[in-house]
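Deviations from the work plan: none for this task. Representative record:
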Amino acid sequence: MKILITGAKGQLGTELKKQLTCGYSEIGEIPSALKNAEVLYTDVEELDITNQQQVKQFILQHKPDIIISSAAFTNVDGCETSTDAAFQVNAIGPRNLAMAAEQVGAKLIHVSTDYVFSGQENGRIPLDESYLPNPVSAYGRTKLLGEQYALQFCSKTFVVRTAWLYSYTGKNFVFTMINAGKKLGKLTVVNDQLGNPTNAVDLAHHLLKLAVTEEYGIYHCTGEGVCSWYDFACEIIRLSGVNAEVSPCTSQEYAEKNPAAARRPAWSALENRMLRCTVGNEMRQWQEALKVFFEHYKPQ
Ligand SMILES: NC(=O)c1ccc[n+]([C@@H]2O[C@H](COP(=O)([O-])OP(=O)(O)OC[C@H]3O[C@@H](n4cnc5c(N)ncnc54)[C@H](OP(=O)(O)O)[C@@H]3O)[C@@H](O)[C@H]2O)c1
């Protein structure tokens, strides 16, 4: 069994490496078929997914059985101004991987986002895989095209949408709140965008569960329970012990102070229906997963 990971230095890539190296995570063991797998960990230096020729050569040479693509242009505001780069990484990259995967008969696990949805859906019901995407940002649009290319060019594709991801390494909302809280002692955070904070441990665990199946298709894979960025920030500050005051604001107030910021969905809470109907949904409640995160991670 040979696995190729792209974007291996990112949040998800680092967590996948940890689980594939140890054989288990906080949630449980990884599938036994993956325990002695040969794993090729690559990031942009070794394998630039936007380079079609390089991707093809690499995949034809190594012939992986499974490709897990965690490479992406994840700076949501940056995608608005660097649209060409976002398009290359988030859309052309998955297309290159999918075409090469198909040539060697590999499975492709492509990770996507809740930001493929507009957030304007009525009823405030968590969105399952039957809802139609309608992105409102360059990040969402390029990620949606990446999903479509992955499904179109590789017959063994899993598209897995996650949201509000955090991990022990890299850039994420948890570290942003801790650092800003320490520096400023005061935070103002939007209270009218709702979604699902997701611990990368839970996401990686489920990607590995899916990898050993043939249950191809679109999946939602986010932490259980819904909250606003403000609720999330309050819990981060409480659990971290940082001495900072957190105040709510509206998206409009935030946009007035940050005119270059991308539009974000007001409601992008997802329902992990396909997971429940196939390999099982073991995603933890977001508060529980965050609590365990802080038991392992102690900010200096
Ligand atoms: N973070 C979130 O809140 C969030 C939410 C929903 C969905 N997702 C999705 O979840 C997946 C994993 O996200 P993440 O937070 O782990 O991302 P991340 O930490 O930003 O990691 C992405 C990795 O991909 C690398 N990369 C960028 N361009 C590349 C290229 N052309 N070829 C190969 N590698 C490249 C990045 O390198 P550099 O750092 O050098 O650019 C980085 O190491 C992504 O598909 C993302 O869209 C993330």
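The mean pLDDT is 96.
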